[in-house]
Amino acid sequence: MDCCEKVKAKYCNYNETKLKGSYLRTFFCSDNKTYVVKFLNRDFGKRILPNEYISGLLAKYLKLPCHEIKLVEVSDYLIEGDDNLSTYSEGTHIGIEYDFSSNVLTPWRLNKVSNIEDIVKILVFDQWIYNSDRGAEYSNWLISNVNGFLTIIDHSEAFGWRNWEIKNLLTTLNDTLSYTESEIVYSKLCNLMLPTFNFSLELEGFINQIRGVPYEVIEDIVKSVPNEWKINDVESQHIIDYLVSRQGNIKNLMSSRNNRLLVGTG
To answer: Does any domain span residue 225?
Structure first.
């Protein structure tokens, strides 16, 4: 099943953006949009592309505030014609649509967030996919300069790690993310919700949405990962099982003692 549209990179426009990153480049593509492209590079993390792809498509299915992802075909002539791309490779990579009007979230931009109602959904989603680094990094959140709309980027550490193996999936299957003060971004965002939201109601609503994602949707997304990213059939099934297990257990995961700040019990 084709779960994700494919576009072709036309030229690298990295210098036109505010982007920084050692393995990131932006490309203007065949649909006349710019995408942040993460390349298949096992030195940076052999599971980064599958993690981004699976998590990004699940986020889209759940209508979370995120940026469109595409499979980006980068040809050899683009690589060979640009010395700045010499360490990269041709092939199919992951592209996240670049928003020229957004900036990285910062502590002084927190009070500008306009879609506060989406915060609890993001927290539950991260718990489901066990995205282990968004809670501590402002750089994994963007905010629009136009209307304060908060969006999420970077699912590289989904499933516990960017270099996961099956043994890691088995080890972290029932692990929980913390929403306490040790995860500074989650903590600050939770505090934004405190004056205006009924945690229990909002939490229960999105937990039910997570639990309602059909098995067939999860399976189709995971099994559509491009072959060249080297996720074999056994690993694919373990990712499916991981998501289904955490999906069924999501209420307990969200009720753990680590999450007392979110659920209001501490």
So the answer is: yes
